[in-house]
Structures are given as C-alpha cells and as structure tokens.
Amino acid sequence: MDLKNAIPPAAAAVLLATSVALPVAGFTTEGIAKGSLAAAAHASIGNVATGSGFATLMSMAAKGAALKAGGAGAAIVLLKSMQSKL
After folding, report:
1. Which residues contact 39 (CB under 8 A, 6 or more apart)?
2. Would you list the DSSP string of the chain?
3. Structural domain that includes position 14
4. What's the pTM value of the predicted model, to 2 decimals?
5. How many domains does the chain have?
6. pLDDT tens for residues 18-77?
7. H or E stretch covering 64
8. HSE, side-chain direction, 13 A CA sphere, residue 86
C-alpha cells in the first residue's frame, strides 16, 4: 500500500468519525445530552478537571468542532478523489 495516498483518506475517516461520535455519545453544542453516555460519564467523574479529556470533548462539542471536523474530512476525501482523476 502507498502510505502517501492512504494517509489523507485515513485522516478524513477519523475526522468524519469524530463528527458522528461526539453527538452520538452525547456531547452536543448545547452541552451534555440528558441520558447519554456522556451524561453517565460526567455523573461518575463529578467535577471535570480543566484540560482533561472529558473537558476537551465538551469544549469541542460546544464549539461545533465535531461538525467542522466532519466537513473538513469530507473536503479532504473530495479533493483527494478529484486529484486522482486529474
């Protein structure tokens, strides 16, 4: 396999997965979704430490980073597919 050509689709897949995984887990732009996996994790953690992984996921979701990442991933896939046809 040619790694130079495999990395952009792999990066796109991670970005697209992030755009789906955060909201599904309950990390939304409005905060933690009631009854979600994120809510259960938050309940077990208690106070969330600044800079922790959970805080980072909350921040990404609140800023809409997951949706932006998904859009970036889609753009990478599109550009890569266009490049291979030129």
Report:
1. 26, 32, 33
2. --HHHHHHHHHHHHHHHHHHHHHHHTEETTEEPTTSHHHHHHHHH-SPPTTSHHHHHHHHHHTTHHHHHHHHHHHHHHHHHHHHH-
3. 3-85
4. 0.60
5. 1
6. 777 888 899 888 889 999 999 999 999 999 999 898 998 888 888 776 566 656 666 666
7. none
8. 6
